[in-house]
């Protein structure tokens, strides 16, 4: 029986290689001759790497019974035969048409609430007795700052200290949450409860504390000795541990959310994820007070960015949505406020957001050296992207491009290395022209264009200190 154990392992490795390359994913299978050839080349490489690695650790007694070259040839023939069966017996999926017209946002806008007459929100806040006077004053000022964008059409109430929502809280015009959301367990679930209690276009006011506003953080950073000895451990236990799957649950259970930190990007992102639109915020007494409006349906995405390795929705060939892997360089939930950042910030000289508060401290470093992109080798092996090409874009960013550009983009698979500008970017139009030039050249001469751009991009990265997008 032990004699067949290596053979069983080789079979498992072959299935693993198929999973890595998504070779036999029927729904996404591409029947063009070039794509079948590319799949076979990838299989040859991946199977070879896995088999050689496994064979090198086999005991000598098994190596005497099995020839690596014969095993490799056998599974390669099996792989080709399986591909032929797929081509013969599976009809071409209709999912390879142009999907551009079907790019529907994950979150849809809500209609206005018209069941109540407009109420003076400033006067209503002043009449609340269960809020601190100074806190009420800050809320009133925040409301006045956005008076032209909001309208109160329903009762205004405050949540209880434990953040629970009563069944009597329905069709609220405004909900004020005095509890700092850092201390709320199951935050997304709680925000959805708030969402259901508020009428369409209704308001929510809540507060949070960022990492650098914590008293312990300020103490550690102000003391030169503690800064280099204690602070790294503080960072590890308050920011690294809570972002590790499974361990995070143990952490929050043991600490009772006492040391949970929330960045501005995560707070805003969670609000947008659960259907709110952030209008603005004010800092008060070491806290940040946020004003948001119930504007959209909650996101249906079950896996928003949170852990170190994330999957992001991106527009790909034929307008198809694919999940692109990345090492997270931004704060959690940052993808949900891209539109907000785009409206507030201008572009840098390389066509990216100039002051993007969503990027973490270490994020700038891993972006500079493309560390955050390395894991996209998975997408390359699965056939989602190629080496050179326009980056697979988010649905919001893609919607900003003109229709002429989109027609070209739909015809070409996205890439890992995207064209970089030779001179400073002054407007979004410059970004469009840069990328459209590549797309037009690629359609005329694919191989020549990719080879030319590959060496050009590598040269810019090595000698001009360009950074990842």
Give a verbal description of the structure.
The protein has 469 residues and is α/β, with parallel strands linked by helices. It has 3 domains: 2-96, no CATH class; 121-210 and 262-294, Vaccinia Virus protein VP39 (Rossmann fold); 309-463, no CATH class. The protein is built from 19 helices and 9 strands. A 5-stranded mixed beta sheet has the order 1-2-3-5-4, with helices on both faces. Strand 2, helix 7 and strand 3 (198-208) form a beta-alpha-beta unit. The longest helix is centred in the first third of the chain and has 24 residues, at 33-56.
Number of strands: 9
Strand order of the largest sheet: 1-2-3-5-4
Radius of gyration: 27 Å
Task: Describe the global form.
Answer: globular
Please identify the structural class as seen in this structure.
Answer: alpha/beta
Report how far the terminal alpha carbons are from each other: 53 Å
> What pattern of helices and strands is seen along the backbone?
HHHHHHEEHEHHHHHEEEEHHHEHHEHH
How much beta, percentage-wise? Answer: 5-15%
Instruction: Please describe the biggest sheet, giving its number of strands, its sense, and whether it closes into a barrel.
Output: 5 strands, mixed
- Low-pLDDT runs of 5+ residues are 91-104
Helix content bin = 40-55%
What is the number of domains?
3
């Amino acid at each position: 029986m032990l004699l067949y154990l290596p053979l069983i392992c080789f079979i498992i490795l072959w299935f693993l290689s198929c999973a890595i390359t998504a070779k036999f994913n029927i729904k996404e299978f591409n029947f063009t001759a070039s794509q079948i050839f590319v799949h076979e080349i990838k299989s040859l490489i991946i199977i070879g790497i896995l088999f050689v690695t496994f064979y090198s650790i086999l005991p000598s007694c098994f190596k005497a019974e099995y020839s690596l070259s014969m095993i490799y040839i056998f599974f390669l023939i099996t792989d080709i035969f399986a591909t032929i069966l797929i081509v013969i017996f599976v009809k071409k999926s209709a999912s390879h048409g142009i999907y551009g017209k079907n790019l529907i946002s994950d979150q849809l806008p809500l209609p206005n609430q018209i069941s109540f007459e407009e109420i003076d929100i400033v006067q209503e806040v002043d009449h609340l007795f269960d809020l601190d006077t100074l806190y009420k004053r800050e809320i009133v000022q925040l409301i006045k700052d956005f008076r032209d964008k909001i309208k109160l059409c329903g009762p205004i109430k405050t949540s209880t200290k434990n953040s629970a929502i009563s069944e009597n809280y329905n069709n609220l015009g405004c909900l004020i949450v005095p509890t700092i959301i850092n201390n709320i367990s199951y935050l997304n679930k709680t925000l959805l409860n708030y969402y259901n209690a508020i009428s369409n276009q209704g308001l929510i006011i809540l507060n949070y504390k960022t990492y650098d506003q914590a008293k312990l953080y300020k103490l550690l950073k102000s003391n030169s000795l503690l800064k280099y000895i204690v602070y790294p451990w503080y960072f590890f236990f308050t920011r690294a541990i809570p972002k590790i799957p499974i361990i995070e649950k143990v952490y929050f259970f043991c600490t009772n959310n006492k040391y949970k930190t929330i960045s501005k990007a995560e707070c805003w992102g969670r609000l947008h994820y659960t259907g709110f639109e952030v209008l603005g915020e004010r800092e008060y007494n070491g806290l940040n007070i946020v004003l948001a409006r119930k504007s959209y349906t909650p996101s249906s995405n079950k896996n928003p960015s949170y852990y170190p390795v994330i999957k992001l929705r991106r527009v790909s060939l034929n307008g198809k949505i694919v999940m692109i892997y990345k090492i997270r360089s931004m704060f959690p939930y940052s993808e949900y406020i891209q539109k907000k950042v785009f409206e507030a910030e201008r572009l840098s000289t390389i066509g990216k957001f100039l002051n993007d508060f969503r990027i973490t401290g270490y994020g700038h470093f891993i972006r500079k050296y493309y560390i955050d992109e390395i894991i996209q080798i998975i997408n390359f092996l699965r056939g989602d992207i190629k080496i050179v090409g326009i980056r697979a874009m988010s649905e919001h960013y893609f919607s900003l491009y003109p229709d002429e550009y989109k027609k070209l983009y739909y015809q070409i698979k996205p890439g890992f290395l995207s064209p970089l500008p030779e001179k400073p970017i002054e407007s979004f139009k410059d970004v469009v022209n840069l990328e459209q030039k590549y797309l037009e050249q690629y359609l005329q001469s694919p191989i020549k264009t990719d080879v030319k751009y590959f060496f050009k991009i590598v040269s810019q990265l090595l000698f001009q200190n360009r950074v990842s997008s």
